[in-house]
C-alpha cells in the first residue's frame, strides 16, 4: 500500500508542479506531512542531500523520500512517480507547442505562472530557513516565540549562514568549496 501511496503522491507532485525542483519542495513537504513519512528535520536533510547530489532536485528528493519511507523499491517507485507526468506531458506538448508558442493565450498563461513559481520557491526558502535557524518548538504561539526569542534561535545555524554569506559575497569563494566548508563547520560545531 505504501508503494501505491508513494507513486500517487509523487505523480501528483510531478503533475501539478511548475518551475522546477525548488517549486516542488512545498508540495513534497505537504505530502510527507500528510502521510507522516518523515519529520521536518529529516526532510530538510533530504533537501540538502538532494541539492548536493547530481541531477534534478525533484527527482533526487523523490528518490530519497521514497527510500526513507519504503527502502530501495520505495525510492524507485517515488522516482518513477515524479518523472512520469513530465515525460507524458513533454511528449504531448512538444507535438503542439511550436505551432502555438506565439499565441497570445499561451503567452498570458506563462506570464501568470511566473509569480506563482516565485512564491513557491520563496515558501520553500522560508521552510528551510525556519528549520535551519529555529529550534524545534511545540508551542506555535507568537507571544511565546517573542518572549523566548533567544531560546528558540539556533545560533549555530545562523553563525554558519553568516560566515558562508560573507565568504561568498565578500571573498568570492567558490560555492562548491563553500558547501564543503559549511559541512565541516556544521560537523565541528555539533561535536
TrEMBL record:
<keyword id="KW-1133">Transmembrane helix</keyword>
<feature type="transmembrane region" description="Helical">
    <location>
        <begin position="173"/>
        <end position="190"/>
    </location>
</feature>
<feature type="transmembrane region" description="Helical">
    <location>
        <begin position="109"/>
        <end position="129"/>
    </location>
</feature>
<feature type="transmembrane region" description="Helical">
    <location>
        <begin position="149"/>
        <end position="168"/>
    </location>
</feature>
<keyword id="KW-1003">Cell membrane</keyword>
<dbReference type="InterPro" id="IPR003370">
    <property type="entry name" value="Chromate_transpt"/>
</dbReference>
<dbReference type="GO" id="GO:0015109">
    <property type="term" value="F:chromate transmembrane transporter activity"/>
</dbReference>
<dbReference type="InterPro" id="IPR052518">
    <property type="entry name" value="CHR_Transporter"/>
</dbReference>
<keyword id="KW-0812">Transmembrane</keyword>
<comment type="similarity">
    <text>Belongs to the chromate ion transporter (CHR) (TC 2.A.51) family.</text>
</comment>
<dbReference type="GO" id="GO:0005886">
    <property type="term" value="C:plasma membrane"/>
</dbReference>
<dbReference type="Pfam" id="PF02417">
    <property type="entry name" value="Chromate_transp"/>
</dbReference>
<feature type="transmembrane region" description="Helical">
    <location>
        <begin position="6"/>
        <end position="25"/>
    </location>
</feature>
<protein>
    <submittedName>
        <fullName>Chromate transporter</fullName>
    </submittedName>
</protein>
<keyword id="KW-0472">Membrane</keyword>
<feature type="transmembrane region" description="Helical">
    <location>
        <begin position="69"/>
        <end position="97"/>
    </location>
</feature>
Amino acid at each position: 500500500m505504501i508503494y501505491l501511496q508513494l507513486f500517487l503522491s509523487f505523480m501528483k507532485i510531478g503533475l501539478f508542479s511548475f518551475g522546477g525542483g525548488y517549486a516542488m519542495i512545498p508540495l513534497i513537504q505537504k505530502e510527507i506531512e500528510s502521510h507522516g513519512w518523515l519529520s521536518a528535520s529529516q526532510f530538510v536533510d533530504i533537501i540538502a542531500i538532494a541539492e548536493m547530489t547530481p541531477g534534478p532536485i525533484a527527482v533526487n528528493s523523490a528518490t530519497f523520500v521514497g527510500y526513507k519511507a519504503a527502502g530501495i523499491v520505495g525510492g524507485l517507485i517515488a522516482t518513477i512517480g515524479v518523472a512520469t507526468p513530465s515525460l507524458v506531458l513533454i511528449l504531448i506538448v512538444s507535438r503542439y507547442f511550436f505551432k502555438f508558442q506565439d499565441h497570445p493565450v499561451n503567452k498570458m498563461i506563462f506570464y501568470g505562472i511566473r509569480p506563482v513559481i516565485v512564491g513557491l520557491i520563496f515558501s520553500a526558502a522560508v521552510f528551510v530557513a525556519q528549520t535551519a535557524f529555529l529550534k524545534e518548538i511545540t508551542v506555535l504561539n507568537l507571544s511565546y516565540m517573542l518572549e523566548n526569542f533567544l531560546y528558540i534561535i539556533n545560533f549555530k545555524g545562523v553563525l554558519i549562514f553568516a560566515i558562508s554569506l560573507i565568504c561568498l559575497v565578500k571573498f568570492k569563494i567558490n560555492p562548491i568549496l563553500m558547501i564543503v566548508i559549511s559541512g565541516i563547520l556544521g560537523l565541528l560545531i555539533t561535536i
